[in-house]
Amino acid sequence: MSLLNVDKLNLTIGRTPILKNVSLTLGQGEALGIVGESGSGKSLTALSIMRLLPHGSTVGGRITLAGEDLSALSEAEMCERRGRVMGMVFQEPMSALNPLKTIGDQVAEAVRVHGNVTPREADEVARETLNRVGLPATRFPLSRYPHELSGGQRQRVVIAMAIVLKPRLVIADEPTTALDVTTQARILDLLKRLVAEDGSSLILISHDLAIVAEMADRIAIMKDGAVVESGETVELFRAMQHPYSRMLRAASTYVSRRQRRLQASEGHDAPILDTKGVVQEYRDGPRQLFRRAASFRAVDDVGFTIRRGENVGLVGESGSGKSTLARVVLALDPPKAGTVTLDGADLLASRGPERQALRRHIQAVFQDPYGSFNPRHTVARLVAEPFHLDEGKLSAIERRRRVEDALVAVGMQASDADKYPHEFSGGQRQRLAIARALITQPSLIVLDEAVSALDVSIRAQILDLLADLSDRLNVSYLFISHDLTVVRAITDRVVIMQDGRIVEQGETEEVFANPAHPYTQSLLAATPNLERALAARQAGLEAQ
Amino acid sequence: MRKALGRSLGRSLGSAALAVALLTGLAPHAALAAKTDVTIGMPLEPPNLDPTGGAAAAIDEVVYANVFEGLTRIGPDGSVLPALAASWDISDDGLVYTFSLREGVTYHDGTAFDAEDVKFSLDRARAEDSTNAQKALFAAIASVDVVDPLTVKVTLSSPAGNFLFNMGWGDAVIVASESAADNATNPIGTGPFKFVNWVKGDHVELGRNPDYWGEPAQLEKATFKFISDPTAAFAAMMAEDLDAYPNFPAPETLSQFEADARFAVVIGSTEGETILAINNGRAPFDDIKVRQALAHAVDRQAVIDGAMFGYGTPIGTHFAPHHPAYVDLTGQYSYDPEKAKALLAEAGHGDGLTVSLKLPPPSYARRGGEIIAQQLAAVGVTAEIANLEWAQWIAEPFKGKDYDLTIVSHTEPMDIGIYARDDYYFDYHSDAFKAIMEELNNTTDPARRTELFQDAQRQIADDAVNVFLFELAKAGVWNAKLKGLWANSPVQANDLTGAYWED
Amino acid sequence: MSTEPLTDLPRQEHGRWRAHHLSLIIGAAITLGVIAIALLSLVWTPHDPNPTPLPIAERLKPPAGAHWFGTDIYGRDVLSMIMVGARNSILVALVAVGIGVGIGVPLGLFAAARRGWLDDFIMRVNDLVFAFPALLLAIMITALLGPGAINAIIAIGIFNIPVFARVTRGAALSLWTREYVLAARVAGKGSALISIEHILPNVLNILVVQATIQFSLGILAEAALSYVGLGTQPPMSSWGRMLSESQTMFAFAPHVAIFPGLAIVVTVLGLNLLGDGLRDMLDPRLRRERSAQ
Amino acid sequence: MGSFVAQRFVSLSATLLAASIVIFVVMEVLPGDPAAYMLGLNADPAAVAALREQLGLNEPVLQRYLNWVGGFFVGDFGLSYTYRVPVRELIADRLWVSVPLALMALALAIIIAFPVGIIAAAKRNSIVDAVIMGATQLGIAIPNFWFAMLLVLAFSVGLRWFSAGGFPGWDAGILVGMKSLVLPAVALALPQASILARVMRSALLDTLHEDFIRTARAKGLSSGQAIRHHAVRNALIPVMTIIGLQFSFLLAGAIIIENVFFLPGLGRLIFQAIAQRDLIVVKSVVLLLVAAVVIVNFTVDLAYAAIDPRLRRRAP
Fold first, then answer.
1. According to DSSP H, which parts of chain D are helical?
2. ipTM
C-alpha cells in the first residue's frame, strides 16, 4: 500500500497550463526524487500536494495521502493536515524564516497550531527537535533569532519545523541549492537520517541528478510539466529511455570538448596575469563616528599567475574571497595591498588612458544572466560597450561589423543586434555577455560564476562554447566557481581558496586526483557525484 | 498646567453624567436659565492688555471702559463724558485744565486712586523713553501738578481744542504706579470689570468688579473670544458659541443673520475713513492730474457694494460723515472713467500705467483692492496687487513709503491732522493745509473750528491727496436678547457697562 | 521562489497590466482632461474670468443658464475662474516638480555614484530639509519672499528636491550593484557616464511615478498656500483662494465653495490614480529584475 | 545598543544645530520690524527705538544667536515681543492643545487605517479591496481644510452636535476639551488614515509574498493566522516609518485646521507670530517642531530595533 498517490494531476495558473497528467506513487518509508530543470513543474507538483498554490490556480486529478483523498478536503481540513501529516522544507533558508521571531517560537508554533498543548510543552518539543537537527541547546537556545544563524543552521531550523510532528510525508524542495557544497552534504545526511528515524517518506526535489541518485529510492524526471520517465533509481539509470533523460544525464557528467590542453612545457611565455600579495579589507558593521570601524579581511595575501592561453579555475565556498579577488583583478576596487600585473604592466598603478588601454586586455562575464544587461539598451549597444576603451574611435559600420562577428562567434544571429535583452533566455544572455567580453579581443576573461545560474543542459552548451572559444582565440580564462565538476572540466590549473587565503594550487587533474590540503579533500568528498552515488546504491542493493 | 489637568480630570469624573450628556450632543447653554455672562467675538487677539503700551485696537476693544478708565471717556455718540474726573475747569486762555477727581475709587487690587496716579500716568506717557504709541496726544502738556489728592492741574504749552477728547482715548487711561509694569499681562484698572484670565490664542475673561465706584455692571462675566477667520466667526455665531460679534468681519453673511430671529444685526458708524492712499511723493502721483484721474476712475458705490455688501457711506474727504462739521464732497470726483482717461492722457500717460497696489489683511482692503484694480484697469491703469501681512504693511508702505497705492481704514477719531505731518506715508506737503491746522489748534471757538475743519476737508479734496472711498460701517451681530451694546464705534471699544440680557 | 513559474523562455510583459489598467485609464483621462481644460482657458472661457470693471450686480448667482457653475462674490463666472485656476495650479505644481527633478535627481545620482562623505553630506542636508514640516517650510519661505505664485513655486519646489534626491539615490544605489554596471566599469566607463547611460534610464520609471505623486501634492500644497493667502495673488484665479474667499458664503451660496473644492479633489484624484496605475504597470518589471538577482 | 543610541543622538544634535542656524538666519532676513508693528500706525519713532532697545534687538547678531540657543538649552526661550510673556509659557499652553490634537488624530488614523488596510490586503483584488482603495484615493485627494469646512457645516451649523471651534481649556473638563477636538481631529485624520491604510495594505502584500509566509502555511497555519502571526508585525516597519512622518505632519500641518476651528494650538501660534513678526516666537516654535520631527524619527528608529531583532545586533 503506497502512502502517496498522485493520479493525473493537472494544474493551470490563469490560462497557462503548468502540469499535465502528473502521476506519482510513493511507498511508506520510501524516498522519491523529482528531477527537472527550471520550469519543469517539479516545485508546483510539491505545492499541489501541500495545496499551497498561487492565486488563480486550478487543479485537476486526485491526490491520495494515507488513503485519504486530499482533493476532497476543505481548506480548514488541509490546514489541519499540513505540518502534522505532511511537512515541507523550502529552498531558501535565508528567507524561509520569519526574521522577527525566535527559532524556538517558530518551531513551537507548528506544535501549538496542531494540538492542545501548553506553550511550555510546545517549547519542550521544539527543544527536542532542534537537538535532533543538530542545534544543541548550549549554542542554540530557543531565543535565537534567524539572523544569528548561518545558512546551514537556518536550513536545520526549517527542517526542524517540517519534522517536529513526525509527519508521514516530508517534501524537500531543493533544500540545499542555496548552500555550500560541504554544508549541502551535511544537510542531506541529516535529512536522510531523520526520515529514516521517523519512518517518514521523503520527496526530494532537485535539479541535480547526482544528489537525487544518492538520496532517492525512486526517481521521476520531469520536463515541461510532465513526467517523462520514472522508476527505481538504479533501474532507471541502467536503462534510460527518454532522450531528455539521457541528455540530462550527459550534461550532469559534463566532459569538456576541449581539444587543446596546455602543456606545462609550453609555459615559456611571460604570464598574462600576475598577482602578488593582494590584501583586501571591508568595513564590518556600521561606520563609527569616533573610532575606526572593525574591518574584515576578505582577501589575505593572495598571489597567483595565469600564463597566456591558460585557463585557471578559482574555487572556494561563499565567503572565501574569490569574488573580492576577482574585483581586484578587474581593477574595480583598489586593494589594501598587493600588485596586479597584466601583460607585464602594473594595472593598479595605471591611470587614465594607460588604464583604459590595459583594460582592453581583460574583460569579464558575470553570474546573473538577467542583471548583467541594461534592459533599456539594444544588444548592439550593450555588446559594443567595451569599445569605449578604444582610443581611435571606430566608424559606425566597423563597430556594427565587429558586433555582428562577435554575436556569430558565440552562436547568435547577426540580426539579434537590434533586439533588447529581455527578448532572450538566460542561456542566450550569457552568450551575449561572452560576446561583449570578446569584442575587444582581450587576452584574459574573468568568468565569475558565469554558468552557476544556468540549468545543466544550458550550462553544458555554454561550457562547450567557452571551450571552443578558448581553442580558437587563444584567450585565457580566470574561471571562478564553487562547482568543482565544472572547474575540472574546463581549466588547466586550479586555485583553491578558503577564508581569503589560497590553500592549494596546481594542475587541475593533479589536484583533483591527489588533493593535498584537507580542505580540498573535504570539498571533493562533499561534491555529489552521480557515478559514485549509483555505485554505492548498487552496492547497497547487492548487499541486501 | 499638568496639575490643572489632573484637577479637572477629577472634577470631570465627578460630573461624568453631565459630560456624557455633552458628548451626546446637548447644547451646553440650553440648560442654563437667566444668563449673566456674555461671550463676545473679536477678530484680533490683543498682543497685550496694556492700552498705554501698544497701538493694537484689540487692546482697547477688551479693556477700554471695562477694565481701565481715563479722566474722561467717550460716549456712544462720540461726546466727551466725565469719568475718573467728575468735573473740570478750563482757564480762559485754554492752557490750564483743573480736574476734580472722583472720591472713593479703588483699583482692582485694592489700592486707592488719587491725583498722584494721574500725574504718574500722564508723565509716564509723555516721558522720553515712553513706549506709548500715541505720544502725540500728550504733546501739548507742559506740566502736570497735584493740587490735592482729588485735584490735578494740567498745564498746556499751547491751546489744544481737543484735549478733553484726547484724554478719553484708551492710550490716556489712568494706571497705578504699583501695577503699571504688569498691565500687559495682568491689567489692574478702576473699571466695572476686572481681569480674570487669558488663554492665549483663545480668549480673555473678565469678571464683575463688585467694588466699582459707579453703577455696577449687570453682567457677572464677560469673555472675549478671538476669531479672526470670518468663516469660523460665522460658524461660531450660528452655533451660538458667541453671544455677540460687535465688528463682524464678513458683511456678506449679514443677510443670513438678519433672516434669523435669534440674532440682531445693528449697523452703526465708525471713525474709519477708508481710503485708497496714494504715494504723493512718487512719480507719476506727484502730478495732481494723475491723482484726480484715479479719483474719477473709482466707483465708490461699487466698492461699497462689492467689498462691503452695501454697508458703508461714501466719503469725498477724510472726515466722518456723522460729524457735524462734515462736508459732502463725494460729487467732486464723480465716477467718470472717460474723464479719468482724459486726465491721464493730459498727464502724458495715455498709453497706460503700471502701479503697485499693496493690501493689508482686512477684507475691506483685499476685496476693495480687487474691485478697484479692475476699475483702474478699465481706464488703462494696471494695478499689481500684493497682499501683505500687517507687519509687512507697516514696514513697506507705512514706514518705508515703499508703495504706489494702498487701501487702509484710518480708524482713529478726528484724525484729519495726519495730512499736516511731514513724514507721513502719503508724502503730502501743503503749506495751505498746515496753516489751517495751525489755526485750528489755536482756536477754541466752536463755530470757527467747524469752519476750519471744513476748509481742511476741502483742501485735501482739492489736492486729491488720496481717493476717499467710504466710512467703514460697524456691522454688529448679536443675540437678539442681548441689550445695551454700542451700535456705533466712536472709539475702538466694547463698553459692556450697560450690557444686559433681556428675558 | 518558485510560486511563479520560472521558465527559461524569453520573458514577456504580461499579467498585471490588465488588472490595473482601469486606474491608469481613469487617472490618465482625468489628468488629460484637466490639462486640456487648462490649455483651453488660454484661448477660450465661457466668460471673461476677470471683467473690467467687475459686474457686482451679477454676484452670487446660483448655477443656471449662462453661468453653469454660478457667479462669485464679484459677479465673475465661477466656471471660467476654475478653468483659469486649473492653468495656474498645473503651472505651479509642474514647475515645482521641475525644480525637484532638475536639482534632486542630479544630486541623488551624484550621491549614489560618489558615496563617501559627499553622499553623507548631501543626505544630511536632505534630512535637514525633511526635518522642517513641509507646509511650515512653505509658509516660512513665502513669508520671507512675500506671497505670490512664483514664491509658492519655490517653496513647494524646495521641498521636492530632497524627495527626488532620496528616491533617485535609493534606486541608484541598488542599480550600482547590478552586474551591468560592473560590466560598464570593466569597459572603462567613469561614474558620470555610467550614471547617465545606465543609472538614469533605469530610475526613470520610479521618477515618473514619483513625479506624478509630487505633482498632485504640489496641487494640494498650492491650494493650501493660496487658501492661507500666501499663494497665487489676484487677479490670477486660484482654486485655493477661491475656497478661502467663498467659505463664508458656504451656507447661502454653496456653489462658490463646492466647485473649486471639487476641482481640486478631481485633479488630485486623477493624478493619484495615474500614479498608481503607472507604478503597477512599471513596477513588476523592476520587481522581477530585483528577484532575478 | 548603547553606541547605536549614542550615534543616533549625535546626528540628531547635528541636525538640530544646523536647523537652528538656518532658522535664525531666515528670521534675520525676514522683513518687518517687530517694534514698529507693536506700536502701530501713529507710533512715535522715539518710542519704536526705545522698544527695540528694550527687546534686545540692537545687540550684535552672533550674540543674539548664542543667547537664543543658549536659552533653549535651559528652557528659556526668551520673552514674546507681542504677548510680553515668556515664550516657554506660550508654547507650553499651545502644546496642551496641539499634542492632544495630534495624538487624537493619529489614534483615529491608526484605528481606521489598520483594520481597513488589513481587510483590503486579505481580500486583495476583490470588490471590497477595490472599494476601499477607491475610498482611500478620495480621502487623500480631499484638501483637509475643505473637508473641515464641510464638517463644520454639517455637525456644528447643521446638527449642532459639536461647537464650531474654539477650545474651552482643559479646566472645563477632559471630556469637554476632547469634544472640542473631535472635528479637527477627524479633519486631520482623514487623509492620514487614507495614506496609512494604503501603506498598511501594500506592506502586508509585500510581506505576504515572503517565503516565510509559505513556511508558516506549510506548518498548518490558516491564511488568516499567517497574516496575524507573521505578516502584520513584519509589515509594521514601513507603516511605522509613515506614522513617524505623520506625527510631525500632524503637529505642524494642523496650522490650517487650527485656523478653521480657531484652536489655540502651535500652528496658529506660529501663523500669528509670523504675521505679527513676533520672531522670537517663530524661531522657537519652528525649532521645536523640527526637534519634534527629529525626535519622533529617532524614536521610530528605536522602535525598529524593538520590532526587528536584526537591528539589535548592531549593538556590540
1. 2-29, 34-39, 45-55, 61-73, 87-122, 127-141, 144-151, 174-208, 211-219, 223-226, 232-260, 266-276, 279-307, 309-312
2. 0.78
